[in-house]
Amino acid sequence: MHDELEFENCSHSHDPVVGCALEGVSNIIAGIRDISIVLHSPQGCASTVALGYDNHETDFTQRKVACTRLFETDIIMGASDKLRDLILKADATFKTKVMFVVGTCSADIIGEDIEGMCRTLQSKVGAQLIPVHSGGFRGDLYAGMDLGLSTLLTFVRPLDGPRLTRSVNLIAPQASLNPTWWADLKWVKGVLSAMGVETHCVFPSTTSIEEISLASAATANIFLTHDMGYNFSRDMENKHGVPTILRDLPLPIGLKNTSNWLRALGEYFDASDVAEQLIESGETLVTDILRRRGLMLIPRYRNAKVAISADASMTIGLVRMLFEELEMIPDLLLVRSNSEQAKALLEAELNRLGISPRVAFGVDGYKVKQSLAATELDAVFGSAWEKYIAEELGTKLAFDLFQPTNRTCYRDSAYFGYEGMINMLEIIANDWEAALRSKEIRWEQYQE
Amino acid sequence: MSDSETVVAAATPSIANSIVFHGSLSELYRLAKEGKIPTSLQGSHTRPCKFWTASKILSGIRNSILLTHGPSGCAFGVKQAYKLTNSRNSAAPYEPVVSTNLKQTQIVYGGERELKAAILEVDEKYKPSIIFVATSCATGIIGDNVDAVTSQIASQINAQIMPIHCEGFAGEFRSGFDLVFREITKLMDAPTEESKAELSEYVNIVGAKMGPERTEIDTDVKELVRLIEGIGGKVHSVIAGNCSLEELRRAPSVAVNCALCLDLGYAIGSAMQDAFGTPLNSTILPYGIAATERWIMGAAKYIGKTSEAKALMESEYAAIKDEYEQVLSHLEGKTAIVEGHDAIKSLSIAHMLERDFKMRAIVYNFHPWSAEARETSIDYLLETGLDPEILITKGTLALGKYESMQQTEDELLEFLGSLNPRETVYFGSSLSFPNIPLVDLNAILNRPRFGYRGALKVAKCIKTALDYGFRPRSAMSKRIVFPQNSGLVSVQSLTGKLAQDMPDCTMYAGQRRKGQCMMS
After folding, report:
1. Looking at this predicted complex, what is its ipTM?
2. Residue A417, strand partner residues
């Protein structure tokens, strides 16, 4: 039902708005406790690995990364000795349980035998050595996260006892544009707990290797993203018999999506009564707060033509909240990832809503800017990038909700659930006020 | 017994256990050249690679497109670090960094066809003045002939085009700066008598990077521009701080190039001198009055404004004299420990402290690697007679982030134990917690640092630090930076969101390491 946008001169040149596979792999590895990373690469790639840690806000005391700092001679002659020496030194210094030995573009292309090195050294080091080929050319951030998850899959041991009956694995909470995504994870865990369901393993966020190894005992997997993880979902089901649930629903963003998600969860775990209680109290919370503090959002937002520029997870969730609950008109949807499953889910959601905005998946900076310029919009929901583009294009309202954001976030704020909706509306309201306030005092109007 | 061992033996026993080197810069320099002190960095001491540093300079050229030939991650990283910073801090419009976005197939079969197509697209959709094609590790290794592609396609596009071979593995971090500064001289037109006459009162400020200056802050570059204008000169271009291709073309015709940063300014300044005979005014960073006067006079003599320069120097000094001299009386004879993580800056500060404030300067944890990487500047300093004390402790050479880790912090405190806190100040990051007054010149409010106003600002910062030396450093701050068992790692690894609020030199650096002067 949607109108897929087409762009000229974009077949070979790409102005990326997401990182490469190395960042994706790092974003997964950084979620595991008590690990270190030996990066077999030129030194610049260390900054990409740091992005993975940044996304977890990993305490700097827990970042244990060393890099072989490859130079031209290493590229020509190979650098196995350098890698061996660094693994030994890092093992002695970092003293972690697991060490990921990560090869990037250079090591990948020159054919460094990272697996062989790990096998050879395994008996000489304390850490378990895990080789990962993570050349940036293997894909984008989301492909890298898939690669990272597939590496973790090798740690999952076959089920050797009865399956747990009320226990779920939560998958890839960090694949989110909420700058404090761990608050969403906390909300999900809280809801599960209220329904008497245990969070078995998070893939991964401060997760231990032991927890991952036992993941096959869970009753089900729940993905907290629509942007990636589909292969992992299939493999967990095929290899370990753990089904994925709720994947065909938008994530719990806004009232209706949250209630749908909670009802589906309650139904699966025979906890519908708890779900209804959560829905009732949550909806009351939202409406009570907005009645007291946000009444003006009704006239403000009604029929405003808006764009969403985000990942699939946020876009699919937001579109109903904006259209049904805030009475806006989502006119343009720009999605950073490009998965067929997310496309199908968005299509279904737009059909249910009966709207046909213009849509583009796998967008880059050029496509975002061109699309915003070509559309008459009242507001843009996006990140700092969209904020600056909107400023340049003369679109007054740009809501800086997503990463990379220029908002200062000292407090963790969920976007999922009822408080999550309030959190987003608070940002939107503050950005609205700041955007429309006069920027300077027009003193001449006050002269006699 | 080696020279360094001699120095260690001379120190008190407890401190000696931690000291790797304590002596003069010239001695360290000699030991480094003779291979008698380790100059290599640890695996945890990663700097930005050549691709990053090249991109940082290229990001300072207006209406250019940086087309990176390789996977998309390299482009994304520098875009978020430099372009988002420019938008955020300096209200620059959105600027792309484009990638050929190579995948596995192109790595196997080559990516020249993609590059050609990408160049045509970029020319058509962005209409830039110039396209810089920057190579990445991947395309460097697979051997795509970027030079051939760019020369073949040049006649088919409207923009000028230039290949930049900046594979991340192809050199230490500063080689990217040097490469681009050398390459962009090829975009310049040889001066003519006419063009030289037109620009006879103009100077270029060379050695800048990234983009436009912040409007709300009295930056150092703005201070230098003010001084040049104060003597009746004009600034033609700040290279490469938001300069245009047209400015670059005419740049050699100015009367003189004035180096902003001794190292980077020298790279482009000497290249322009060699190619076009453009004179170079290359001095140490103009911290303090002595260095500032040398910088001003170095410019003035080429634009025929010597007497105006002297008049300006008098008036500038007169404007600060009373306050400056009053403050100075509190500083003379005191000792300053200068954090040596930013090599050139630390040496320039040491120069100011010794020459202007009559203080004793000890540069702390100046990594021996810098003795190799910063040869030009060190040669210059030694020639001018400056030879500051250098102290290097074991933590600097260990695996970890020596710029801020528990080991180097403990070593610093151990060393400071023998010094009188009322007579000693520490020049460095506020994220360090020595038990003596601390001056953080990277704090954004402490600008300008150059020129006369800067000298007064710095002197007042020292005085303030001494005046409030009775106040213990915040236990909360210390606990934030050095939690229990913080061990090997560094505040450099702080998350982007938190680091936004850290003392900020120039970097935004995407989602990481905001707040540190990543590479001066």
Report:
1. 0.94
2. A253
